[in-house]
Amino acid sequence: MSRPPVIVGVGPVTPEEVIAVARDGSPVRLGEDAVAAIARARGVVEALAEAPTPAYGISTGFGALATRHIPADLRAQLQRSLVRSHAAGSGPEVETEVVRALMLLRLSTLATGHTGVRPATAQLLADLLTHRITPVVHEYGSLGCSGDLAPLSHCALALIGEGQVRDADGVLRPAAEALAAAGLAPVELGPKEGLALINGTDGMLGMLVMAIADLRMLLRTADVAAAMSVEGQLGTDRVFAPELQALRPHPGQAASAANLVALLAGSGIVASHRGPDCNRVQDAYSLRCSPQVHGAARDTLGYAAVVAGRELSAAVDNPVVLPEEGRVESNGNFHGAPVAHMLDFLAIIAADVAGISERRTDRFLDTSRNHGLPAFLAHDPGVDSGLMIAQYTQAAVVSELKRLASPASVDSIPSSAMQEDHVSMGWSAARKLRRAVDGLTRVVAIEILTAARALDLRAPLAPSPATAAVVRALRDAGVAGPGPDRHLAPELEAAVALVASGAVLDAVHAVIGELQ
Fold first, then answer.
1. Which of 85, 191, 304, 487 meets the CB 3.0–4.6 Å disulfide criterion with 49?
2. Is 303 designated active site?
3. Is 134 helix (H, G, I), strand (E, B) or coil?
4. 245 lies in the same domain as 188
5. How would you class 128 by CB atoms within 10 Å of its CB: exposed for 0-12, middle for 13-18, buried for 19 or more?
6. 35-65 pLDDT tens trace
7. Comparing C-alpha atoms, which of 3, 9, 57, 58 is closest to residue 37?
8. Which of 56, 140, 285, 392 is an active site residue?
9. Which ranges of the sequence are coiled-coil (predicted)?
């Protein structure tokens, strides 16, 4: 099925457009306004290139070598040398979706008319995205200052027909060969173009945008998991009442609590112990305080989305072209601190939400705390181990998430002969956040799998319509209910896939409508 193109104009691309291009393979087209803006800025660069006065990035070297004036006959070589030397990444290949997001966001900055590239160069970048030609970018090479230099340089290398790419079928090919097969010709970079192609925070921003989308889904799914745990552990839903939440008016907390109320509505299990005979005074923190923890994560995520929106509206380059004034100016907008801080904050909330999820899970397995359920939810405890080791797996992931929560953005290693003496490490923050998002997905999936077994064991008491729908989705996906021990890893992976795809939320939404 052909997808509508994403039109890249002078204005910012949206997070939804980033996802469409990065993950869904949507084609890309330059808007007419962008082409006109690019051409205006190019005129400024060409005028400065002909002037006798040195202009940084146009007729000089770069970084610590900026004091050398480069004569006109060496400037094409200057741009090629810049791209070739900076394409110095190392390690495993970065995921295709990350590279496509990076390319789209660099194109979005080019389209603002503040970088000075030629329209043909910007068009070729759009064509690579449309033909799904993805340059090979490596894990290591960016310090998150002067932008994501090495990752972007590997993309720029493909524009000049060099380096390795993956074609639309994922086959590794020389860039020149893939371009030719798509009917495209490489460009010869003119003054400033090499620098304009590589001096941006696009990689870390692309990963931030995708992480925000993933975490929005996961935090709502964590509410589903918490509701199932409260229900399965005979907890109360009264603590989630809106009048109690209003006493501490955090919007994320209110939304999470409202979700829990909706998810537990109509539960026969909750109703069974709501009367005067219930002797439990209050639930454990991991149950009772779920909205406070999940809500704080939501509010942090909301601020990260605000920062991402500002960055999507930015034109990050150095030097930057100011066409209205006919000049090019050096600046520090390439520093990745605003993005890096958000990436680190999100790794912290992933670890915290996973931590409370694991604590809820563990309570199901302990007969001193699970209110009448068999040890480890096993069929025949002692003969069967039940979900004992599933919790081990969950705990191992949570421990990893705690390590990943250590911020990258507080680190800095000076580079470029001390010219670049404070860097953001935003790319590193983004890479570890991707691992954290995957880890949170796994932790929440194991809680849901565990809680579903507990709800089955509460029969003949009936769960709520919403949580019952999740149990059905698990069973339909091959995650069996209680019974003798069996090979558990495939069931864990099936649960992870349901969470990651959004199918758990879909099952809930089909019954009670959209969660907040």
1. 191
2. no
3. strand
4. no
5. buried
6. 999 999 999 988 888 887 777 777 776 666 6
7. 9
8. 56
9. none
